[in-house]
Amino acid sequence: MTNGEWTPRIVAFFCNWCTYTAADLAGVSRLKYAANVRIIRVMCSGRVDPQFILEAFAKGADGVLIGGCHPNDCHYSEGNYKMLRRFQLLRRMLPEMGIENDRLRLEWISAAEGEKVKWAINDMVEKVQALGSLGMPGRFQDWDQEMKSLEQKMTTPEEKEVAYAH
Amino acid sequence: MDNNNEIRIGFYICHCGSNIAGMVDVADVAQYVEKLPGVALSRHYKYMCSDPGQELIQQDIKDHKLNRVVVASCSPLLHEHTFRQATEKGGLNPFFFHMVNIREHDSWVHTDRQAATEKAKALASAAIQRVAYHKPLEMKKVPIHPDVLVVGGGIAGIHAALTLANAGKKVYLVERDPTIGGHMARFDKTFPTLDCAACILTPKMSAVGSNPNITLWSYSEVAEVKGYVGNYKVTVRRKPRYVHEDLCVGCQECIKACVYKEPKFPDEFNEGLGKRKPIYIPFPQATPQVVLIDPETCLQLKLGKCKQTCVAACADRQAIDFHQKEELKQIDVGTIILATGFKTFDAKRLAAYGYGVHQNVYTALEVERLVNASGPTGGEVVLRDGQKPKAIGIIHCVGSRDEKTNRWCSRVCCMYSLKLAHLLKEHSDPATEIYNFYIDMRTPGKGYDEFYDKLLDEGVHFIRGRVGEVTDWAFTPEEEGKLVMRVEDTLAGYVRRIPVDMVVLATGLEPHTDAQAVRRMFNMSCGSEGFFLERHPKLAPVSTFTDGVFIAGCCQGPKDIPDTVAQAGAAAAEAMALIDKKYIEQEPNTAFVDETDCSGCKSCVPLCPYSAISFVEDKKKAVINEALCKGCGTCVAACPSGSIHQNLFEDEEIFKEIEGVLAYD
Ligand SMILES: Cc1cc2nc3c(=O)[nH]c(=O)nc-3n(C[C@H](O)[C@H](O)[C@H](O)COP(=O)(O)OP(=O)(O)OC[C@H]3O[C@@H](n4cnc5c(N)ncnc54)[C@H](O)[C@@H]3O)c2cc1C
Ligand code: FES
């Protein structure tokens, strides 16, 4: 949070060969973009396990950005296609969990596209800013509370069983 | 590691002069990190990559019993190696180190000091959490096959091949055209010294032809590349010349004997300004000295009907073979140098200059042939209409420095325009007027500005302004029958119309149309303009992101011959450094299967692009061949039981990073 105003926190997974290098290039070119994105380096976008994405949301990310090489350009031939498939599956699941589609984004950014890093980050920050905080850690706390208070009300094991069956 | 396995992390944040400290409050970050669990010591220092910076780490490891090191500075792609070494020198396994990128990814791209400092804290805390999970690892050693493939036989490829061959390395030189030489072979003279291009190039060409260490395959292309650094398996497609290279002695009797008494077909080497026969040799010094037959124009190959006078002339040498087929050759090499050069901008794309419409509009390459003593006119400047020009206009920057075509400066056009102005003057009537139309004169280089001064003294006219149009629409009697160049003279401040007899377009340098296909074949990247991308613009200018693949010459970007040769030498040296070391060290980021958890579901097996994963039937477990694994981690992410791990990118390590970047707000 900067100057009291809420700004989103975004976790990014960038592949070493294209997008991470592009982000380096953006730096060397002194392009300026929003400071909300924290980049984690993986060798290939194919390494990004859906669990990483869910974990990021669960731990308080308001958005997750994945960057890989353009189709056909993956340093390991096709890791980016594997990522694309997982991304598409996740996009169907996430709204069910109350996570809007704009919070997960996949971008193909080649090593030469420093400008695209800037654009993708700024554009994503703007969209997630508009959505507001996701607040999963808070929601987990609420749910835990809810569960606990339910449990407290219930005394017999039979009661618990009936409650959980719903 | 220390007894009782206590984690003791040393954290260092670099000021990088003011590069980082100017935007990130380094003292504040150091203070914040000091309080994080596991951190034994936290410092900020002016230049961590300097010797004292590295020694600081080494000393601290000893004095403070550190067992993990984190440095927050520039990109790991730049200095990870440096700090791993420092960690190792301090007595730790080099992989007990992690690097945080707070320059390229933070201080250089943000403008709000508070936000940048917070981001640095978040990134640092991720590294601190992650590094605790690091394991000791060893670099992977891959042996290097000593042979080298050089693709493209312009001056870059020639120089690289000769340098390697002279050092005793075996080289395959693959050239697409029937002869090596590239663009330089077409020039008459070279700027700024005006030494004759053929005189300096042809000795090198014949040295390639006769060097026992070089296998020259001209008229050939790379069809497939498999493998990885040290062990590339390459398939080369040799197009049929319809002449056996080993039997042809280059006597050219066949060309004389061809049923076409006179050359009839446009000659590629002379940019179509001259003519050749269906059986031909591109130019007298072509290397290899072997003729070839063009199947599009040869009567025998096209119609199956000809007296075959060439075969009779070849007599018992029997070099001509109308049934020759394309051949595929397999070779093993350890390193590859790409020197595929450039193509010139297609002048037809700028309709206002009338190339292809007005016959006396020429491209610079055509003029190189016109002023060449061995060219189609024997070096006389005679126009397509048979006239000798009395006034010539040279337009600079055609297809360069223009939003509508190419944005980049082609670097050599100002200089070759000056050269052509000089040569045109030399090869025409002394009274011939020559005008150069330029945007800015770009003459950086040894002896280059002096060359410009010389031209100013030679009475060549210089007009500053981009020519708007070349037209044959005359306004005045003097303009009748001329090409009129309309230009805003930005120094004089008015629009001028200058009638000339000949227009020369200084077309810029572009990537080849197949550059994207070529780079894919070699698993490289291209910059946004389409030239091959170097690993680092300053520190690794001839390396690529693919280990063992190097680039040299104009395929990397426009440049002159001196720079091309320098790069070719550098690429050869880089290849030799690998070969002579005999092995290359690679990141130990390979994946492995934990057999206890593997359920034998086989879902990983088809995922691997390198077929590194196999299934052991009797154990019902997957195994990964470490030598084949390149470390992408795709199988790790896909394993449903979580039994595949990746060194350096373990699940826990990444989970901790996620937690870390989000811990700070
Ligand atoms: C009109 C003009 C005049 C110039 N005059 C000068 C001058 O006076 N002085 C100077 O210093 N510089 C001059 N230059 C620049 C000079 O041409 C370049 O610096 C030089 O030619 C670069 O050499 P290269 O080997 O990189 O590329 P090239 O000369 O383009 O050679 C590349 C070679 O690779 C081959 N090739 C391409 N693709 C493949 C493939 N896929 N497989 C196999 N082979 C392939 C090509 O057939 C070619 O033989 C001039 C340029 C132009 C356009
Ligand atoms: S290496 Fe970039 S997506 Fe695979």
Give a topology summary:
The complex is a heterodimer of chains A (166) and B (665).
Chain A: E1 10-15, H1 19-28, E2 37-42, H2 50-58, E3 63-68, H3 79-93, E4 104-108, H4 114-131, H5 136-153, H6 157-165
Parallel strand pairs in A: 1-2, 1-3, 3-4
Helix pairs in contact in A: 1-4
Chain B: E1 9-14, H1 26-34, E2 39-45, H2 51-63, E3 68-73, H3 76-89, E4 97-101, H4 103-107, H5 113-131, E5 140-143, E6 148-151, H6 155-166, E7 171-174, E8 189-190, E9 195-196, H7 197-210, E10 214-217, E11 220-228, E12 231-238, H8 253-257, E13 265-266, E14 275-276, E15 279-280, E16 292-293, H9 299-303, H10 309-314, E17 327-333, E18 335-338, E19 343-344, E20 361-363, H11 364-370, E21 391-398, H12 413-426, E22 433-438, H13 448-457, E23 461-464, E24 467-471, E25 483-489, E26 494-500, E27 502-507, E28 509-510, H14 515-521, E29 549-551, H15 561-581, E30 583-586, E31 591-593, E32 613-616, E33 621-624, H16 634-638, E34 644-646, H17 651-663
Helix pairs in contact in B: 1-5, 2-3, 5-17, 6-7, 6-15, 12-13
The complex binds flavin-adenine dinucleotide (FAD) and FE2/S2 (inorganic) cluster.
Task: Report on the architecture of this protein.
The complex is a heterodimer of chains A (166) and B (665). Chain A has 166 residues and is an alpha/beta fold. Chain A contains six helices and four strands. Chain A has a four-stranded parallel beta sheet with strand order 2-1-3-4, sandwiched between helices. In chain A, helix 1 packs across helix 4 (114-131). With 665 residues, chain B is an alpha/beta fold. Among the domains of chain B are: 9-137, Rossmann fold (3-Layer(aba) Sandwich), CATH 3.40.50; 253-313, no CATH class; 343-510, FAD/NAD(P)-binding domain, CATH 3.50.50; 587-647, Alpha-Beta Plaits. Chain B contains 17 helices and 34 strands. In chain B, the strands form twelve sheets. A five-stranded parallel beta sheet of chain B has the order 10-7-6-18-29, covered by helices on one side. Chain B has a five-stranded parallel beta sheet with strand order 20-27-21-22-23. In chain B, strand 25 (483-489) and strand 26 (494-500) form a beta hairpin. In chain B, helix 1 packs parallel to helix 5 and helix 6 (155-166) crosses helix 7 (197-210). Chain B is globular. The relative contact order of chain B is 0.11. The chains are: A alpha/beta (166), B alpha/beta (665). At the A-B interface, helix 1, strand 2, helix 2 and helix 3 of A face helix 4, helix 5, helix 16 and helix 17 of B. Bound molecules: flavin-adenine dinucleotide (FAD) and FE2/S2 (inorganic) cluster. FE2/S2 (inorganic) cluster binds at residues 15, 17-18, 44-46, 68-69, 74-76, 79-80 of chain A. Flavin-adenine dinucleotide binds at residues 151-157, 174-177, 182-184, 187, 190-191, 221, 339-342, 344, 364-365, 368, 412, 416, 419, 512, 518, 553-554, 559-562, 564 of chain B.
